[in-house]
Specification:
Elements lengths: L3 E8 L5 H12 L42 E7 L2 E7 L9 H17 L2 E2 L1 E7 L7 H11 L10 E6 L22 E3 L14 H27 L3 E2 L1 H41 L5 H11 L1 E17 L4 E4 L39 E14 H12 L3 H6 L7 H15 L1 H13 L5 H18 L3 H21 L23 H16 L1 H13 L3 E5 L6 E5 H10 L6 H7 L5 H9 L5 E5 L6 E5 H9 L7 H8 L6 E5 L6 E5 H9 L7 H7 L7 H9 L5 E5 L6 E5 H9 L7 H9 L5 E5 L6 E5 H9 L7 H7 L1
Parallel strand pairs: 1-3, 1-5, 5-6, 6-7
Antiparallel strand pairs: 2-3, 4-8, 9-10, 9-11, 12-13, 14-15, 16-17, 18-19, 20-21
Helix pairs in contact: 2-5, 5-9, 5-10, 5-12, 7-9, 11-12, 13-14
Length: 776
């Protein structure tokens, strides 16, 4: 057996992987609290003091993965070498593209090792429930761990001990041996050493001792188990790359196919007025054209985006690069020296770009030419060739051809997925694509660019089409097992009980004095004896804090009474409060630090009306102290209430001379602007819907209108346009229409100004078109 053991460390962004690596460093290098603490990865309070190469980002930003590269930390003990491979965090706030990049880096790091001894999955044990981000991490992990490594999976819960863990271990959906489940809590790396008093130091020393005992058990388990070859990671990488390439090509093809289907649907509406389906279809397919984009071979290389299927820099001046996402792409004209492309509709990162001898060409083809091309390109199998061997003579056969084409395009994807599931049974492409869809929809809602939102909506529609087809493949579905891990078999350290017992005895001997003395030491003040107004008992309290609270006029109680009044810190009470319909508080998740917090419901409504971003008190305090805050405080001219707006966005709107109002007033003004993509599609496809889908003759965009309103306007012979164009028309001072009220039916209608003058000069009574037609 080899004396070298490699352990891959993976987990969610901010779960405590870096803290674990620092604890491991102290374990092997005999670190001690408080003066001999070893730090491999710098924290907010302690800089790195070990000569270890690291790619850590700003340690103060907890929402972003601190590790951008896979770093190896090698230690020796008793003639054995242990190599810990720290990997980038998953569910990074930089988005789904960064997650895909990080998954690739993790698989590359695993493949670079000849063998792996263990896979350490690090989970924040204080998380009480399954969040969207954590579900994303677990889904991606299950689809990235080959079956050959499942017996070597360890779970390390951070920020907790076994008796304080909130996380449900069964929600990970990986059947882990209970002996391979561990707990650690090291607050030394998340607190300021300047505030450590003697009591704090003793507590931190005990945490170190418990963690070192846990590491003893981890290494003992690792040395006893057999290492696993990483060749499966290489095969998984090849299959994933193949699937990604096919999806990249399919996104362009399916986008063009959807345009064809839209064209056929448009023809279907026109068909109601036609008598002869075949003759009408022939005329339609030869006269009507569709616009599409095709990648054509070129004698030169260009910079292309694999996400947007867009040529970002035609005839790129950089030396041709063979690696996708190479750092050299930052120097491309499309990036302008930044990390994001300035040409992409979605402003993608440089690392999703590549060089290819292709160029994107806009092609206008008749529907007949497109149907012919589709037959030649996709329907080469004998079965489909025979079915569509003749000309496409009617709408029904054309729609069947489009449906058959889409089915054929998924065959290669399904084939690669089946091969991948042989190696990794937890892989589920539909689940991964669904996560991608959810995150894309969230990003699209937050986007302020109309072009970016439109591009994202088209991409969402394409991916959902692929998902729907793949979802029908039973062989690709992962059968969920009811996994139950016997937590009674999870081993606990003996010293944990000693630690709890000794702490309890110390608290029982003099609970109030010890806790208050510790608090006084931390605050650097002395104690003052007070009498509790509730229980009438004497207690000690920090003098400085007493003076502050006295100035504010707050009632000061002993810790026991104060705790009983504010007992909502308990998990059970929290849940009861959340489920209480009479509770005046609302539970939210802070968009900055991603932690849950409570806010008064009335206050929440006021802030939401003003369109303010609602964050927790801690982040709000940090924001107020930050002179570089990117928000600007304004007063809404409509509702007269204050609201906040991003400074850059404010400058853009101010340049355009737009009236800047709060989100609440904006939503009241334009109710339809924030309509959800999914609801729109569902509404369009609902036969019982009271709305009718039309195409605006001015801007050529689709819009919805109430069927009854449509009939009224059609009777009056008015040109029906979308709200946006209607608004522009009303604001246009050069508008040639005049609004009148019909003296007969008492309804408003529009008439050309010149025609109005002519009729008025002749002394004619001017009535609406509907009344004119009924008169005839």
């Amino acid at each position: 057996m080899s004396n070298k053991f490699s352990l891959l460390v993976i987990g969610e962004t901010g779960c405590g992987k870096s803290t674990l690596i620092n604890t491991i460093t102290n374990y092997f290098l005999n670190g001690e609290i408080p003066d001999k603490i070893k730090v491999s990865i710098g924290t907010k309070f302690i800089n790195s003091n070990q000569n270890v190469k690291s790619s850590e980002n700003d340690s103060k930003d907890r929402t972003k993965s601190q590790t951008d590269l896979c770093n190896e930390y090698s230690f020796k003990k008793d003639s054995k070498e242990f190599v810990f491979i720290d990997t980038p965090g998953l569910s990074d706030t930089r988005g789904i593209k960064q997650d895909d990049i990080n998954i690739g880096k993790i698989i590359d790091a695993a493949e670079s090792c000849p063998s792996l001894s263990a896979l350490l999955i690090v989970v924040n044990g204080t998380v009480p429930r399954m969040t969207i981000n954590l579900q994303n991490v677990i889904t991606r992990l299950r689809g990235s761990i080959p079956d050959s490594l499942l017996n070597n999976v360890f779970i390390v819960f951070t920020n907790c001990l076994s008796h304080t863990r909130n996380f449900d271990i069964n929600s990970i959906e990986i059947n882990v041996n209970p002996e391979y489940v561990f707990h650690m809590n090291n607050t030394a790396f998340s607190t300021d050493p300047k505030l450590w008093d003697p009591t704090s130091v003793e507590s931190l020393k005990l945490e170190f001792k418990l963690s070192f005992q846990t590491l003893d058990r981890i290494l003992e388990c690792v040395t006893k188990m057999s290492s696993v070859s990483t060749k499966d990671f290489g095969e998984m990488k090849a299959h994933r790359h193949n699937i990604k390439s096919i999806l990249h090509k399919a996104k362009t093809d399916i986008g063009n196919l959807q345009k064809l289907q839209d064209s056929l649907s448009q023809y279907q509406h026109q068909l109601e007025k036609a008598n002869n389906d075949k003759e009408s279809f022939k005329n339609y397919t030869t006269k009507n054209t569709i616009e599409k984009y095709e990648l054509k071979d070129a004698p030169y290389h260009s910079t292309l985006c694999s996400t947007c299927d867009h040529v970002c820099h035609n005839k790129c001046g950089l030396e041709e690069l063979s690696t996708k996402g190479d750092n050299a792409f930052i120097g491309c004209v499309a990036m302008s020296g930044t990390n994001n492309c300035k040409i992409c509709p979605s402003k993608c990162l440089y690392n999703v770009h590549y060089h290819g001898r292709k160029t994107m060409v806009k092609v206008n083809k008749t529907v007949e030419q497109e149907l012919t091309d589709m037959k030649e390109k996709f329907l080469k199998s004998s079965e489909l060739s025979s079915e569509f061997s003749g000309k496409i003579l009617n709408l029904d056969s054309a729609k069947k051809l489009a449906s058959a084409t889409l089915n054929k395009m998924t065959d290669d994807i399904v084939k690669s997925c089946k091969e991948l599931k042989k190696i990794c049974s937890g892989f589920n492409l539909v689940d991964e694509l669904q996560i991608t869809l959810n995150q894309m929809e969230m990003e699209a809602k937050n986007s302020t660019s109309f072009d970016a939102r439109k591009s994202a909506d088209e991409m969402i529609r394409t991916i959902r089409e692929i998902c729907d087809k793949l979802n029908k493949e039973e062989s690709l579905k992962t059968k969920k097992k009811n996994i139950t891990i016997d937590e009674s078999k999870i081993k606990n350290d003996n010293s944990k009980k000693q630690y709890v017992d000794s702490a309890q005895q110390k608290q029982d001997s003099n609970p109030t004095k010890d806790s208050n003395q510790q608090q006084a030491n931390l605050n650097g003040g002395s104690l003052k004896t007070l009498k509790c107004p509730s229980c009438k008992n004497n207690f000690d309290f920090n003098k400085d804090k007493y003076e502050e609270l006295k100035k504010l006029g707050q009632l000061i109680k002993c810790k026991s009474c104060h705790t009983s009044k504010n007992s909502n810190s308990n998990v059970t009470d929290k849940l009861a409060k959340q489920n209480d319909p009479k509770s005046s508080d609302k539970k939210l998740n802070c968009p900055t630090c991603k932690n849950d917090f409570h806010i008064n419901k009335d206050k929440f409504r006021d802030l939401a009306k003003n369109g303010q971003t609602i964050i927790c008190k801690s982040c709000k305090s940090n924001k107020q102290n930050d002179p570089d805050s990117s928000d600007k405080k304004l007063n809404c001219p409509t509702c007269k209430k204050d609201f906040h707006m991003n400074k850059d966005k404010f400058k853009d709107l101010a340049k355009n001379g737009q009236t800047i109002i709060c989100k609440s007033c904006k939503s009241n003004k334009q109710v339809d602007s924030n309509s959800n993509v999914t609801d729109k599609l569902a509404k369009q496809n609902d036969p019982k819907s009271s709305d009718k889908k039309l195409n605006c003759p001015t801007c050529k965009n689709d819009f919805q209108i109430n069927k009854d309103k449509f009939k009224d306007l059609a009777k009056n012979g008015q040109t029906i346009i979308c709200k946006s164009c209607k608004s522009n028309k009303q604001n246009d001072q050069k508008s040639n229409d005049k609004k009148l009220n019909c003296p007969k039916c008492k309804k408003d209608f529009q008439i050309d100004k010149d025609k109005f003058k002519q009729l008025a000069s002749n002394g004619q009574t001017i009535i609406c078109k509907s009344c004119i037609s009924s008169k005839k």
